[in-house]
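Page 37, continued from 36.
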């Protein structure tokens, strides 16, 4: 795709009107990607609040994405100008689910209302469960987290920050797993070994410094070291394990559901 066509297709998603806004950026900085035959970087940064300075509209505290496209040489420059947890003044064009950056007017902008909101968002947030105890909120991931012991190994339990109803449902998923952790630990590792043992031995063949000729199922299970569990309101979960160098340092991810169905194992 040509540069001109790419720009035209991107800008077509937004209105022609340019407005001045004050924005509050979220816990993560500028991210970017380049898919397929794209010439330009598609950059973005999350917003947790914004205010239209061109009208009397009240400030919006719904999460939104600020998007723009930029050539190779300009991406790092934007990362120096726009950063996390900051109030900035911008020119933008509105889209259905995002704002398009036109120009950065002030990288650091003073707004009393938004400053109060930003300070409040930076305060520590905790969630207490009667069974599992206290979780702390990880702003950059948008998850609640607590340390857990799983299968005799230390790791983390993550629950996505959502409505209280969904948090409660996700906690039920976690309770089912932790209540019978030895059985689940064995089930998950056995499944991963069954699904990935052949792949592990293929990787072993490419390791010119390997001290063994074959990885057995027993060895595979023993090398898996628990890292974390992410649980969801629908009863599904993902477990992450360090690979014991079977895949040269990649994580092993096993997905399943508390109904007993294992769905996938991959690196």
């Amino acid at each position: 795709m040509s540069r001109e066509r790419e720009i035209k297709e991107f800008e077509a998603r937004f209105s022609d009107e340019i407005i001045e806004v004050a924005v509050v950026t979220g816990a993560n900085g500028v991210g970017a990607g380049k898919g397929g035959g794209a010439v330009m970087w598609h950059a973005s940064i999350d917003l947790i609040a914004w205010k239209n300075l061109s009208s009397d509209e009240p400030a919006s505290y719904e999460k939104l994405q600020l998007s723009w496209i930029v050539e190779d040489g300009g991406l790092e420059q934007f990362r120096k100008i726009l950063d996390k947890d900051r109030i900035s003044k911008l020119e933008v064009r509105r889209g259905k689910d995002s704002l398009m950056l036109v120009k950065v007017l002030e990288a650091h902008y003073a707004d009393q209302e938004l400053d109060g909101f930003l300070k409040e968002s930076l305060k520590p947030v905790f969630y207490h469960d009667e069974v599992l105890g206290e979780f702390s909120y990880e702003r950059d991931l948008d998850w609640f987290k607590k340390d857990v012991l799983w299968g005799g190994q230390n790791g983390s339990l993550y629950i996505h920050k959502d409505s209280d109803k969904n948090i409660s449902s996700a906690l039920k998923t976690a309770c089912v797993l932790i209540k019978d952790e030895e059985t689940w630990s064995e089930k998950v590792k056995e499944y991963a070994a069954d699904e990935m043992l052949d792949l592990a031995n293929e990787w072993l063949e490419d390791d010119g410094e390997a001290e063994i000729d074959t990885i057995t199922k027993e060895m595979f299970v023993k090398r898996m070291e628990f890292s974390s569990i992410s649980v969801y309101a629908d009863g599904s979960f993902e477990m992450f394990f360090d690979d014991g160098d079977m895949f040269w340092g990649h994580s092993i991810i096993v997905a399943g559901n508390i109904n007993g169905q294992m769905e996938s194992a991959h690196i």
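The chain has two domains: 3-118, 126-266. Flag for discussion at group meeting. The domain at 3-118 is CATH 2.40.50 (OB fold (Dihydrolipoamide Acetyltransferase, E2P)).
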